[in-house]
């Protein structure tokens, strides 16, 4: 299915992402209800608190965008881990009671997983293209230097008697 150039993750990296997703899901199961309660209390306190939370949310978005621009492969890995954690958590809730919102959230987690893998793939491809461009540039410089050296090499000339 994948050529060597299309391989985006290797098995150890995929296994590590899966384990990290399970760990993140366990941590979320432990702190999630408390976090929900705190956020619900904060949101109900007033407009000012909601504006502060909105600014924090925007700040997180900008920070994640910067991470994607600077370290796209890490952004992709974080997205994959978050998606796997969400899938694990949602599948557990679907086993208890199936609701449409949980199914939609599961589809969203699948989309986040795909986007994470796309970001990893784009990062790997960009790195390969950068290596090819660097090699091409070095080859052009070497060819130019060889051509200049051959043009300036002295030629043997003889004048007068050769006896």
In short:
The protein is mainly α and 163 residues long. It has one domain. The protein is built from four helices and no strands.
Mean pLDDT value = 76
**Quaternary structure type:** single chain
Number of strands: 0
In terms of DSSP E residues, the strand content is: under 5%
What does the overall shape look like?
A: elongated
Which class of secondary structure composition applies to the elements? mainly alpha
What is the H/E string? HHHH
Structure description:
With 163 residues, the protein is mainly α. The chain has one domain. 84% of the residues lie in helices and 0% in strands. The protein contains 4 helices and no strands. The protein has helices spanning 11-45, 47-70, 72-96, 100-152. Helix 3 (72-96) runs antiparallel to helix 4. The longest helix has 53 residues, at 100-152. It is elongated. Residues 1-6 have low confidence and may be disordered.
């Amino acid at each position: 299915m994948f050529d060597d150039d299309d391989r985006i993750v290797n098995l150890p990296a995929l296994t590590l992402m899966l384990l990290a997703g399970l760990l993140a899901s366990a941590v979320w199961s432990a702190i999630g209800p408390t976090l929900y309660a705190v956020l619900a209390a904060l949101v109900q306190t007033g407009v000012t608190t909601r504006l502060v939370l909105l600014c924090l949310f925007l700040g997180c978005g900008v920070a994640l965008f910067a991470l994607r621009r600077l370290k796209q492969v890490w952004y992709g890995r974080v997205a994959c881990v978050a998606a796997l954690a969400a899938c694990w958590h949602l599948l557990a809730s679907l086993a208890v009671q199936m609701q449409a919102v949980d199914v939609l959230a599961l589809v969203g987690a699948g989309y986040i997983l795909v986007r994470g893998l796309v970001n990893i793939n784009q990062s790997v491809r960009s790195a390969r293209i950068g290596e090819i461009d660097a090699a091409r540039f070095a080859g052009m410089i070497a060819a130019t230097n060889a051509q200049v050296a051959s043009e300036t090499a002295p030629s043997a000339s003889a004048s007068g008697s050769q006896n």
